[in-house]
Amino acid sequence: MKYGELPRGLPEVGLPQFDWDLAKALVPSAFAVAVLAGVESLLSAVVADNMAQTHERHKPDRELFGQGMANIVASVTGGIPATAAIARTGAGVQNGATSRLSGVVHSIFVFLCTLALASLVGHIPLTVLAGILLVTAYRIADVKGLRRIMRGAPRSELFVLALTVGLTVFLDLTYAILAGVVISIIIVLRQLTSHATALQMKPDELGLIRQVSPGLAAMILSRPDIAFYNAQGILSFHSSSALERVLLEDEPRPLILRMKDVTYIDISGLMALEHIVAERKRKGHRVVLTAVQPKVMMAIRKYGILSQLGWSNVFRSTADAIMSLPLPTPPVAEGVIPTPPAPAS
Questions:
Q1: For residue 153, what is the enclosing H or E element?
Q2: Cβ–Cβ contacts within 10 Å for residue 103, how many?
Q3: Edge to edge, what strands does the sheet with 314-315 contain?
Q4: Which of 17, 205, 264, 268 is most buried, judged by most C-beta within 10 A?
Q5: Are β-strands 314-315 and 287-290 bridged in parallel, bridged antiparallel, or unpaired?
Q6: What is the pLDDT along the chain (345 residues), one digit of tens a residue?
């Protein structure tokens, strides 16, 4: 069985005729091909980084930009969607390739072989090509790294690894990449939903508040009249309901929400935060935000939460927020008439 004869001439250059109905029908397939091509190219770049054993790493934006430009040119010449090839990239790195020039030389070499040896390529058996790919794949494989992964990776990651390997062998690399990406996203979402979005800052069994410095911990412990919570991670659709459930407890205390560890907030998180502020204000409980990251602050301001909350309830540090809250008035014992203050002299 042979690979088949390659074309001997140069492709014709021309713009394809645009068909709106055909374009609409091809949009889902084009989107899937674009995603898979991007993932495969980035995967090839990661493999090359690991094989090169240098401090330099690829730049994903440039990788995808170059791939997009190549596919635009390929469409004009009648080509099919192209991606970075793990086998050829690995072979180049194994043979000492260190720069982008290796890709240029490789493409020129393939081009010249196509023009000069097209008739001979048609006589190469597929078994020979398969043997070359097996040797290249074995040289690319990081056996030591795979052993470390098998020993120390979580079970969920090992499941993704086994699934992608199985799909690659029995189906195709494209299906393996798609399945691996989808299942990895599901695992990440599951991990995100399992972590607490807001934790109450209270001492542990050793009497320490580990989220903050010892000085701030002492200030927090000195004000039991205030509810202290530390928000963390990403406030998104996966965590907004948990945030509301924790912070809408009916406590007759002002709330200080420390947001230093919140790196991103989306519309679901903004809606949850707005509802928390509105409900606690309706019950007469003050809400104070502290240490808000600049990007998160911009989102809160644009959504209108700051106008509802008031700038007087936003502080750079939790210590400033604590000092701004008045101490509670001590209760008066029953039957005791409070002594009026002495007149000023």
A1: none
A2: 15
A3: 198-200, 227-235, 255-265, 287-290, 314-315
A4: 268
A5: parallel
A6: 455 566 666 677 777 777 888 888 888 778 777 877 787 787 777 777 777 666 667 777 888 888 888 888 888 877 778 777 776 777 777 777 777 787 788 888 878 877 777 777 777 778 888 888 787 777 666 677 777 777 777 888 888 888 888 888 888 777 787 788 888 888 877 776 666 677 777 777 776 777 778 888 888 888 888 888 888 888 887 777 788 888 887 677 888 999 888 888 888 888 888 988 888 888 888 899 999 999 999 999 998 888 888 888 999 988 888 888 888 776 555 555 555 555 544
3-class DSSP assignment, residue 274: helix
Confirm if 233 and 201 have CB atoms less than 8 A apart: no
Residue pair 259/293 in contact by the 8 Å Cβ criterion? yes
The DSSP result for 183-251, as a single string, is: HHHHHHHHHHHHS-SEEE----TTS--TTS-HHHHHHHHT-TTSEEEEEEEEESTTTHHHHHHHHT---
**Chain centroid to CA 122: how far?**
45
CA dihedral sign of residues 204, 206, 212, 217: positive
- Altogether, the residues listed in the chain come to a count of 345
- Token pair, residue 217, equals 């911990």
- 269 domain-assigned: yes
Please report how the helices 126-140 and 86-94 are oriented relative to each other, as an axis angle in degrees rounded to 10: 60
The parent domain of residue 37 ranges over 20-141
Question: Using H for helix, E for strand and C for coil, what is the string for 49-100?
Answer: HHHHCCCCCCCHHHHHHHHHHHHHHHHHCCCCCCCCCHHHHHHHHHCCCCCC
108: in domain: yes
* CATH code, 272: 3.30.750.24
Q: In terms of Cα–Cα distance, which of 87, 88, 84 is closest to 70? A: 84
DSSP, residue by residue, 286-331: -EEEES--HHHHHHHHHHTHHHHH-GGGEESSHHHHHHHSPPPPPP
Helix (H) / strand (E) containing 341: none
Domain count, the chain: 2
